[in-house]
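Minimal example, chain plus alpha-D-galactopyranose.
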Amino acid sequence: MKPFKIIGMLSLVAVIALSCQRTPKVEMITISNHNGMSATFTNYGARITSLIVPASDGTFKDVVWGYDTVEEYYASSDLYCGPIVGRYGNRIGKGRFVLEGKEYFLTINDGENHLHGGSGGLSTKVWNMEKISDREVKMSILSPDGEEGYPGNVEITVYYTLNYDNSLDIKYEAVTDAPTIINLTSHAYFNLHGTSKYSTNSHILRINAAHFTPTDEGLIPTGEIASVGGTPLDFRVPTAIGERIDEVSFEPIAFAGGYDHNWVLDKEREFSLAAEVFEPSTGIVMQVWSDQPGLQFYSGNFMDGKDIGRGGDIHGYRTGIALETQNYPDAPNHPDFPSPVLRPGEVYKHLTRYSFSLNAF
Ligand code: GLA
């Protein structure tokens, strides 16, 4: 038999095998450590649904947004409440990119752009989920060639590990059978009050970044790497989120309606402290450590209070922040940005740590 016929048959077998994959049951799993910190996950979107950490008054607070039922996660999938987003987290201009001379078109789901892997992205899939120890959950999924327009069959694994020092590690790995692009991140919304009754504007934030990537009105980078110096995006000195959030005379704040920008982390790809947040009323401090080159800080500007979370908690305007460690938005269309390309034989690796303490900075 001619080689191309054998390859053709093997591809057909692979496609049939993929389409016959049984969708796993949607479940929840909780892990905890000896300090009373616990984290709950569902395999719908490989998402974190609850993260309970100690507060300074001796109580425990749930610092991530969640809902009471799995159905509510389905209904609000475009809010991206806690999932792993991808294959390309963040935006790709007009959903188009060229890789090795071939043009690809992705699903358009954010104005004229592609956002968080598209309307049927990884956050909407039911992943395989396994508790591999008392403190560790493994999620895995095979994203087939052509899904949402992306090339290559990509195998993705995400490990969530709760450490004894009250940190949560998210470790990502991916391999592909054809050249593709990838940018995975967690889209947890944090509120260190432990409830959305109070705005996240009171949180004090520090970001280890001297630069950011300015965008157009659709939040697509222009390609420029600009200094944060003298702008409301300068968080090198700890500052309350609400202090400059409405300074719309600064165009990037006007475009995003608050904060929704990519900070260019000073340490690029070295695993290091990217940002820290502190809520004075609960004493809770969260540090974000990562080996990714960028950090998207989104201050909840699209929240309108129509979404109701756990125990009736109203998800109002600016009551949750996302700190998404990742590559820069639209990197596939900017050769000067860090490369998002993954080729056969390579392994995409990403480690992010959300670390909790009561040590104000
Ligand atoms: C990201 C984006 C925001 C918004 C949220 C989801 O963080 O940067 O603009 O789309 O996701 O609401």
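The two ends are 68 Å apart (CA to CA). DSSP finds three helices and 26 strands in the chain.
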